[in-house]
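Subject line: Sequence and fold of a protein, written as structure tokens
Area: Proteins and the way their chains fold up in space.
Start of record: The labelled sequence and token lines come straight after this line.
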Amino acid sequence: MEPGEFGGTVGRYHQESTPWWPEPERARPGSPNVVVVVLDDVGYAQLGCFGSDLHTPAFDRLAAGGLRYANFHTTALCSPTRACLLTGRNHHSVGMGRIVELATGFPGYDSRIPAACGMLPEALLPAGYATWAIGKWHLTPEDELHAGASRARWPLGRGFERFYGFFEGEVSQFGPALVEDNHLTHQPRASEDGYHLTEDLADQLIARVSDLRAVDPDKPFFAWFATGACHSPHQAPRDWIDRYAGCFDEGWDAWREATLERQKAMGLLPDHTVLSERPDWVPAWASLRSDERRLYARYMEAFAGFLSHTDAQVGRVVDHLAETGDLENTIIVVVSDNGASSEGGPTGSIGDVRAWNALPRTVEEALARLDDIGGPDLHNNYPWGWTVAGNTPFRRWKREVHEGGVADPMIVHWPAGITDAGGIRHQWVHAIDVVPTLLELAEVEPPSVVKGVEQRPLEGASFAASLTDPDAPDPRDTQYFEMFGCRAIRHQRWKAVVYHPIQVDDPPLAEDTWELYDLEADPSETVDLAAQHPDVVADLERRWWAEAERHQVLPLDNRPFSEFVLDRPAAVPPRSTYVYRPGTSMVPEPAAANLRNRDHRIVADVEGPTEPGGRLEGVLLAQGSVFGGFSFHLIRGRLVYVHNNSGLYVTRIEAPAFLSAGPHRVEMRFEKTGEHRGNVSLLVDDTRWGGGTIDHGIMNRISITGNGLTCGRAEGEPPCKDYRPPFTFTGVLHRVTVEVHDEPWLDPALEAEDAIRRQ
């Protein structure tokens, strides 16, 4: 209790003293619950209620009982949009100009959301709300994800009372790297036992609601429910994917045309809307070979099954809210964070990490693994044709600021506050407008101070009036956009936009040409009016630069992999010796020993069973997943090392002899013979027991799904098929030491520890 807060009296004795109890923090009676459902990489046209023919009954039911916002916009990328949705401020203003993995050392891009830009739960928690985050976070700097890092920018440091989910931008749906509250945790069951992440997340949110209602039937809650769907890998239970068999055989061209007609009939788009031209780099469906059509249709079946499965899990949450009596007074906001993804490339992908490692993704390989698409072994993503289709009728896609990248679906469902269920709203709304709207509806003032830090003003504006008034004005007239050098500004009916390809300097950013569109006459940006209205272009360009100065957008940089990214400080200071022990938490890749393209040793001190016939087995050290990584382990008494480069090049080296009982020092030694290649030796007590060669070493990233380094056990979907997790080491594993230089592998401190243990 703070000094001066006590309202009773304290005498020398209890007879002359009066107790006093502070009033508990309670929300105002009737405060609504708030659930924000954030989908990932779902394009404007991919929900049934936004014109798709995909089966999304739960989302459609929310739309039928609420409102669809046909003119909602995001930043074109996930971390930035999430920062907007949680802070009510522009992404550069809070340092989230890019995803956290591509942060640079400039104020608008450092991925460190300042305390002066409080998040929505930091406003609702003091107002008497319970606050939970479930699912994807992707807002903590990469160098702060390990167990030894500060928790200030983890969810519980930003106003959430509970968290269960994952930190990365993408994750295996069958073997995720999970975090609970402020610690890393294990998935509750294996994929072969029916585990799927989206189901797990729904279970967690349902449990939070049940826990609260068991003790307090009236306390309102705020739930951030961010699925991994439908970001790649597009993975779902097989039966959900197979339901769509044959549904996309007509291809993306026919799908786009039919979808636009449905969108017009629904009233989402005006009748004069024209389908944007299919880009030159996307082939006509009719021009494809039959095997290409079969493959590309299967990619889309996997995405559709993933989305429908996600819809069913959201439906479970909604049904639970109805069962507890909360649905009537719960504001449910459903959004996507950006347009459909183009990361699958022109022909689709079964290994998205390969782009980081300069490796091919061929049609021939994908056809050979057609039956695996959508399952736990592939990081699959559909080709560009389906990306364009997912953004119907708009141009371009995620990561770019034409409408295909920034126009997204939004549903608002609130039976207690919406009178024209099923209505459509055409107000121009941006992600930064969600926080001020929810605060107004909850009757909570934006705090001026959070945890002693004076707050910067919100930059969004409330669109609450539009919930009951379909003719309410737009909340704001002007909004800028920028992503990797692509930039745009919308002012009233006009939009000026620049496309600049990533990692390309010709023409220079300073010489880019602005396009101009009249969004009222041409919502799909098909007629460039820049030549007819140079005065409008000049005015909008001036406005854009003013916004860029105001919101920390500068310096412009279209290079995701610039020296600003590649040369930033390491998560922890690099060293020559790393020591890992069983029982420690998973170590994220940025904080683990970097073994790529360098001489190194992995040495484990073990003791085997002494009973007759006993054999050592289990993981010594492993990192990554089936999508890429390595594993140093024993299987049925034999020493094994597996190196998996992006699921394409898998090298397995096994010692020919069995390890005997007693203490041993087992080692994997890698000696470079060229760039990303070298010789592997397996040693037992300094004697070589076998070896082999690695011809295709991992170049840049082991994993992009957050599967880090583990000692003494495995997690998720491991890098090899030798075992299933947890495959805990059966003997005694004292430690595993990783040496990445040519000095002796054991430092003096470890030598002393070893001597004491052996006494």
